[in-house]
Amino acid sequence: MTAMHNPPHPGEVLREWLEGVTVTDAAARLGVTRVALSRVLNGAAGISPDMDLRLARALGTSPGSWYAMQANYDMWQAQRRFRAKVRPITTGTTG
Protein backbone atom coordinates (compact mmCIF):
# COMPACT_ATOMS: atom_id res chain seq x y z
CA MET A 1 0.00 0.00 0.00
CA THR A 2 1.42 3.37 -0.93
CA ALA A 3 1.36 6.13 1.64
CA MET A 4 -0.74 9.14 0.85
CA HIS A 5 0.97 12.49 1.19
CA ASN A 6 -0.66 14.43 4.02
CA PRO A 7 -3.95 12.51 4.13
CA PRO A 8 -6.92 14.41 5.53
CA HIS A 9 -8.32 13.59 8.94
CA PRO A 10 -11.33 11.32 8.38
CA GLY A 11 -13.49 13.94 10.09
CA GLU A 12 -12.87 16.29 7.16
CA VAL A 13 -14.06 13.64 4.72
CA LEU A 14 -17.02 12.79 6.92
CA ARG A 15 -18.00 16.46 7.06
CA GLU A 16 -18.38 16.37 3.26
CA TRP A 17 -20.48 13.18 3.44
CA LEU A 18 -22.77 14.82 5.98
CA GLU A 19 -23.22 18.07 4.08
CA GLY A 20 -26.76 19.30 4.60
CA VAL A 21 -27.31 17.15 7.72
CA THR A 22 -26.99 18.71 11.16
CA VAL A 23 -24.51 17.29 13.63
CA THR A 24 -27.38 16.71 16.04
CA ASP A 25 -29.39 14.70 13.50
CA ALA A 26 -26.37 12.71 12.27
CA ALA A 27 -25.33 11.90 15.86
CA ALA A 28 -28.83 10.71 16.70
CA ARG A 29 -28.94 8.49 13.61
CA LEU A 30 -25.50 7.06 14.46
CA GLY A 31 -26.48 6.48 18.09
CA VAL A 32 -23.66 8.65 19.48
CA THR A 33 -23.62 11.94 21.34
CA ARG A 34 -23.46 15.21 19.47
CA VAL A 35 -20.19 15.97 21.29
CA ALA A 36 -18.61 12.67 20.18
CA LEU A 37 -19.48 13.26 16.53
CA SER A 38 -18.44 16.91 16.70
CA ARG A 39 -15.02 15.91 18.07
CA VAL A 40 -14.51 13.55 15.10
CA LEU A 41 -15.69 16.15 12.59
CA ASN A 42 -13.31 18.74 14.05
CA GLY A 43 -10.32 16.39 14.11
CA ALA A 44 -10.15 16.29 17.91
CA ALA A 45 -10.97 12.56 18.01
CA GLY A 46 -10.29 9.66 15.71
CA ILE A 47 -12.52 7.05 14.13
CA SER A 48 -12.78 4.04 16.44
CA PRO A 49 -13.71 0.58 15.17
CA ASP A 50 -17.16 1.07 16.69
CA MET A 51 -17.62 4.44 14.95
CA ASP A 52 -16.41 2.87 11.70
CA LEU A 53 -19.13 0.22 11.89
CA ARG A 54 -21.77 2.82 12.70
CA LEU A 55 -20.68 4.97 9.75
CA ALA A 56 -20.54 1.97 7.43
CA ARG A 57 -24.09 0.97 8.30
CA ALA A 58 -25.49 4.53 8.20
CA LEU A 59 -23.70 5.67 5.04
CA GLY A 60 -23.52 2.41 3.10
CA THR A 61 -19.72 2.34 3.07
CA SER A 62 -17.55 -0.73 3.51
CA PRO A 63 -16.80 -1.77 7.09
CA GLY A 64 -13.21 -0.85 7.85
CA SER A 65 -12.93 1.96 5.31
CA TRP A 66 -13.24 4.80 7.83
CA TYR A 67 -10.93 3.02 10.28
CA ALA A 68 -8.35 2.49 7.50
CA MET A 69 -8.55 6.19 6.67
CA GLN A 70 -7.86 6.94 10.35
CA ALA A 71 -4.91 4.53 10.37
CA ASN A 72 -3.41 6.20 7.27
CA TYR A 73 -3.82 9.62 8.88
CA ASP A 74 -2.30 8.44 12.18
CA MET A 75 0.66 6.77 10.45
CA TRP A 76 1.43 9.85 8.37
CA GLN A 77 1.32 12.02 11.51
CA ALA A 78 3.54 9.56 13.42
CA GLN A 79 6.10 9.43 10.60
CA ARG A 80 6.35 13.22 10.63
CA ARG A 81 7.09 13.25 14.38
CA PHE A 82 9.19 10.05 14.65
CA ARG A 83 12.66 10.79 16.01
CA ALA A 84 13.48 7.63 18.01
CA LYS A 85 16.93 6.14 17.75
CA VAL A 86 16.39 2.53 16.75
CA ARG A 87 19.00 -0.10 15.96
CA PRO A 88 18.41 -3.24 13.89
CA ILE A 89 17.62 -6.47 15.74
CA THR A 90 19.59 -9.37 14.40
CA THR A 91 18.90 -12.99 15.16
CA GLY A 92 21.06 -16.04 14.92
CA THR A 93 23.58 -17.89 16.96
CA THR A 94 26.76 -16.35 18.21
CA GLY A 95 29.92 -18.42 18.30
Question: What does the model show?
Answer:
The protein has 95 residues and is an all-alpha fold. It has a domain at 10-73: 434 Repressor (Amino-terminal Domain) (Orthogonal Bundle). 55% of the residues lie in helices and 0% in strands. Helix 2 (23-30) packs across helix 3. The radius of gyration is 18 Å and the shape is elongated.
Sheet-strand content, in percent, reads: under 5%
Cα(first) to Cα(last) distance is 40 Å
SS-based structural class? mainly alpha
CATH class of the domain at 10-73: Mainly Alpha
Radius of gyration from CA coordinates: 18 Å
The average pLDDT is 94
Number of helices: 5
Q: Please give the share of residues in helix.
A: 40-55%
H-E string: HHHHH
**Poorly predicted sequence stretches spanning 5 or more consecutive residues:** none
- Assign an overall shape: elongated
Q: Give the beta-strand count.
A: 0
> What is the CATH topology descriptor of the domain at 10-73?
434 Repressor (Amino-terminal Domain)
Architecture per CATH nomenclature, i.e. the level-2 architecture of the domain at 10-73: Orthogonal Bundle
Q: Report the CATH superfamily of the domain at 10-73.
A: lambda repressor-like DNA-binding domains
List keywords for this structure.
single chain; 95 residues; mainly alpha; 434 Repressor (Amino-terminal Domain); 5 helices; 55% helix; 0% strand; elongated
